[in-house]
Every structure is written in C-alpha cells, then in structure tokens.
C-alpha cells in the first residue's frame, strides 16, 4: 500500500475539490442545494479535506526523512520551502486587500496590534487563537507545529509501543475540550490523522488486509453520521473518513488515468492559499453568479486554476524557483560553515 508521487498528487486533487466545496457551501447561500440542508451537510463533511492534506504530510515526511539528517537540515529543507510559497501569495494578495478593498490590518487584527501581522506573516498567529488575514491560513499554524514535532514523533514511532502511544496521544487531543491546549490548539483535531499517515508508511501492510476495507467502510459510514451530530468529535471522525478515502483510492484508482486530479493536486497549494480571497472577500458576487451549485462550483474551480496558472507563470518570470534554490543552498552552506 505505497503511495507514489502521482498518488499523492491525485489525492491532493481530491482534497482541494473538497476544500473548495466546503468553503463555498458550508453556510447557506440561498442556492438550489440548500433544500433540506443538502449543500450545508455535504460541505461540513467535505472538511475532511484538511485531514487528507495532513495525512499526506505525515506520510510524505516519513518518505523524505533521512536517517542521518540533522534537525537543522530537516527544518531548513521543509519549513523554509513552506514559508517561501506562503510569503509569495501573502505579498500578492494582502496588499490588494489593504489598498484596493480597504481590508486594513486594524479591521482584521484589531487596533494597536503591530505584532499580529508579523506572526501572521510567519504562519503562527493561530497559535495565539487569533484570526489570520485570510481565515484559511489557520492551517499554517497547524502544519508548522506538526513539522516541528515530527522528529520527536518519528523517534517515538520506531520504539516498541511508540505507534500505540502516539495514537492514544492523538485521541486524547481530539477529545480534550478546546481552550486547554493554548499554543497546540491548531493541531488538536489533526495530530491523530498526521500519525495515521506516518503509520500508513510504516505499517502499510495492515491497510492491505482484505477485511480492512469492510471494517473501514463501516466505520466511515458511522463517522459521517457522528460528524454531523457531534462536531466535537471531528478529529476522530475525520481521521476515519480520511483513511477510508485513501484506502478506497488505493484499491480502486490508477493515478495514470487521473490527469485532471493530478493537475489540481499540483496547483492545490496555490489554490488553498488564495481561494478564500476570491469567494469570500473580493469577488463573492462574481463567484455566486447563479443559484445552481453544479454551475458555480466548476466555474469557481476553473477560475482558481486560471489564477494559479498565472501565479506559476509569474514565478517563472521572476525566477522564483531559482531564487528559492539559491536561498536554500546559501542557507545550507551557512549552516555547514
């Protein structure tokens, strides 16, 4: 049950589609699918997209981690690359919000809070329980914390009972009431699925068991019901639904036949970073131009893809990836010295 790069791209494509559906319809928009709350309920369940991204992060870190890699090298390689892409989108869209749409720092962060924009710029504002300039960027606090903690988890999971201890820790964080964790609040509902991704890499043979698919299917159905009735169990239910999606994909899909999903997966990071600016802050009326979700949703997906293609083209023009490689190399050489 190995996930290839193409598999992860396709799964990211699935996750970004779920993310866009979630953020378009998790509140009533007087659309056709608001009838009997179909749209809202499906959008709530679509929040499993976050769990999929976190699961793939845990799996990917296990794949890319090296035995003799130093902590400095590990953090440099992952966090520096993660932040560079975030900063590029931040510097593109935040000034537009401030100077064109008058969404000022005072309006977002509150008056006389000069530290908040800085913490938001480095992706850590949500660790203080504060809202980012873009509400979707809370995920950066989550993923940065998980990256920082990964070397510890990687050491523990290699011990005899390590994976069981980590699973118990993940479950504990899921069920403990909010407000008790302070700085670790962003990973409250996602440590468990992050650990599941690590275990999937380490013990993939468990997922390949013939009986596993029936067990996980039944658990996923139950979890969907619990997710709607007991949102406080989000961390546990989304983990189970995520595992079902990954398991179902691996058993029944071939990445070679999923070119569109892989394309979406390649652009998923860009789309995640800016899509809320389009449908929530700047161009809401354009996105929801008609009352049929089956029309506005593909329209929004295509719009996001076009914007991402333009962004990637701008990166090529300014030599973004070359600059990134130069900075990574310079930082590595400095560290080596």
Report on the architecture of this protein.
The chain has about 325 residues and is mostly helical. It has helices at about 5-25, 40-45, 50-65, 70-100, 105-110, 115-120, 140-155, 160-175, 190-200, 205, 210-230, 235-250, 260-265, 270-280, 285, 295-320, 320-335. Helix 1 packs antiparallel against helix 2, helix 1 (about 5-25) crosses helix 16 (about 295-320) and helix 7 runs antiparallel to helix 8 (about 160-175). Helices cover about 70% and strands about 0% of the residues. It has 17 helices and no strands. Residues about 335 have low confidence and may be disordered.
Note the gap between the termini: 41 Å
Sheet of most strands? none
Count of strand segments: 0
* Class from secondary-structure proportions: mainly alpha
Overall average pLDDT? 88
Helices, by number, come to 17
Q: Estimate the helix proportion, in percent.
A: over 70%
Order of helices and strands: HHHHHHHHHHHHHHHHH
Strand content: under 5%
Low-confidence stretches: 333-337
In short:
The protein has 337 residues and is mainly α. The protein contains 17 helices and no strands.
Give me the secondary-structure topology.
Blueprint: H1 5-25, H2 38-45, H3 48-64, H4 71-99, H5 105-109, H6 115-121, H7 138-157, H8 162-175, H9 191-202, H10 204-207, H11 212-229, H12 234-252, H13 259-266, H14 268-282, H15 284-287, H16 293-318, H17 320-336
Helix pairs in contact: 1-2, 1-3, 1-13, 1-14, 1-16, 3-7, 3-9, 3-12, 4-7, 4-14, 4-17, 7-8, 7-9, 8-9, 9-12, 11-12, 14-16
